[in-house]
Amino acid sequence: MKAIYQVKQRSLMALLAWLVISVASVSVKAQELYMAGKHYAIIDTPVTTSDKDKIEVVEVFWYGCSHCYNFEPLINAWKKVQPEDVNFVPYPGIWNATMQTHARMFFTAQALDVLDKVHTPIFQALVMERKRLSSPQEIENLFANYGVDREKFKAAYNSFGVTSKTKNAVKRSQQYKITGTPEMIVNGKYRVSASMSGGQAEMLKVVDFLVAKERRNLPAQ
Predict the structure, then answer these.
(1) Which residue in 138, 163, 165, 169 has a CA-CA distance of 20 to 30 Å to 95?
(2) Shared-domain flag, residues 114 and 156
(3) pTM listed for this prediction
């Protein structure tokens, strides 16, 4: 009987050891589902976020980018289902003069509180209608078509606040090390692109993975 008990005990211990190894293996595989350097990039010097109590997810875009325009339905659906601890921030990328003009347009819309009105029309004007929107007059006309007072537009477009935000966006694009648009930045630490992740839908999956990773570091509420 003692021999039978010892055999059973060894079998039980072997089974437990197998279970531990299996769980560890699954855990490692889960951690390696998305890997730094392959599916996303680590930003060497983390960029400060606006709220340390939340996980900041930045969408870096350009109004003249057809890929960004096509990404809009996906990102809009994604942000609607995010919990309160995720702070989603659309942000214009800048690495040339045209993008700087379009970024100023974005910050002007924010300042006038009409971004919800003009965001999609700006995309459509540039991507679908092939308009340039390269001069203040062209941009003023577009805003006026959506009920924005021309004098208020001029005041906001040329304001110190909008100018400062546009200059900061140049610096921020450099800090993020943006290589194209759209790209996403998670908590100022990770950069995710469609080319690295394997597509726009996959990019959001990688973002979800990184959000979950960062959630473990949030201060206790």
Answers:
(1) 138
(2) yes
(3) 0.84
Q: Within this chain, do residues 19 and 47 fall inside the same structural domain, yes or no?
A: no
Residue of 198, 189, 209 whose CA lies nearest to 38: 198
Residues 77 and 108 in one domain: yes
93 and 51: one domain?
yes
Residue 138 CA, chain-centre distance (Å), reads: 29
Residue 25 shares a structural domain with residue 48: no
Range of the domain at 19: 1-32
155-212 tens-digit pLDDT: 999 999 999 999 999 999 999 999 999 999 999 999 999 999 999 999 999 999 999 9
Non-local CB neighbours of 57 within 8 Å, separated by 6+ positions:
82, 86, 87, 88, 89, 184, 185, 186, 187, 207, 211
125, two tokens: 């004007």
